[in-house]
Write a structure and sequence with these properties.
By secondary structure, this protein is α/β, with parallel strands linked by helices. Among the domains are: about 110 residues, no CATH class; about 40 residues, no CATH class. It is about 40% helix and about 20% strand. The chain contains seven helices and seven strands. The chain has a seven-stranded mixed beta sheet, sandwiched between helices. Helix 2 packs across helix 3, helix 4 crosses helix 5 and helix 6 crosses helix 7. The protein is globular.
Length: about 240
């Protein structure tokens, strides 16, 4: 295990998740929230139509194989096809590793009110920046700061709370061995990092299969991000 993830320049980040998930407290459910796997570089409008690369699907299978035994995995994804592909590949890998896993649901909402409007906005930023990674980072920071057009995006704080409500509701019927694994997008992971934990988006953005682990505890959250373990106070709105 590890030959695909160790061969790509973004693979150290999902590998760090696989290392950190072994530190979870046993007998308590947890959440893993990651971006989808590799897709081609954006070259124009309608980026939501881009699918996973074959290498990305192999990496997602490998990621699933590397998740720890003794857990039951419920996998959720967004409406975008590359997130669905990533989730299905991860489930395939989990099952290859001898663990229980299933696609448990699809998010009933999107980041933007209008996906085409978001694509058009990102393309405008891309033309100004000339670099996809820089454009995405600028777009995400403007969104988190409340500067992006609200006819394109939900306000980021509202959106992060919508994602939290969805996840909290599902934890209510989790068993002690449950891990809920969410496969979404860089904007989703970035918004939840910022609004759930107060963590800024990294300078290199949110990479493929990059994300965090959250284990709810009685008085605080145990959080792992990029190999760092933290204990963080719940947001005041978490609904404890």
């Amino acid at each position: 295990m590890g030959h695909v993830l160790s061969s790509v320049n973004w693979g150290t980040l999902p590998l760090s998740i696989l290392q950190s998930v072994a530190e979870l407290e046993p007998g308590k459910p947890a959440i893993i929230h990651i971006r989808h796997t590799e897709r081609p570089e954006m070259s124009g409008p309608n980026s939501n139509a881009l699918l996973s690369t074959s290498l990305g699907r192999e990496a997602a299978i490998e990621f699933g194989e590397g998740l720890p035994a003794g857990r039951s995995y419920r996998v959720y994804h967004t409406m975008v096809d590359r997130a669905k592909q990533s989730a299905e590949s991860i489930v395939e890998g989990i099952k290859r590793g001898g663990n229980r896993a299933a696609i448990a649901g699809i998010f009933p909402f999107r980041t933007s009110y209008d996906p085409q409007a978001m694509d058009d906005y990102l393309v405008r930023v891309f033309r100004r920046c000339g670099d996809e990674d820089v454009a995405v980072a600028e777009m995400m920071n403007r969104w988190l700061a409340g500067l992006a057009p609200q006819d394109v995006f939900h306000p980021s704080g509202e959106f992060a709370r919508m994602v939290a409500e969805y996840a909290i509701l599902r934890l209510e019927n989790a068993t002690p061995d449950t891990i809920d694994l969410y496969v979404t997008h860089d904007t989703w992971v970035g918004a939840t990092l910022f609004h759930w934990f107060g963590l800024p988006i990294p300078m290199d953005g949110v990479r493929f299969l990059d994300g965090f682990i959250l284990q709810p505890l009685e008085e605080e959250m145990a959080v792992w991000f990029r190999g760092k373990a933290m204990r963080i106070e719940y947001p005041h709105w978490w609904g404890l």
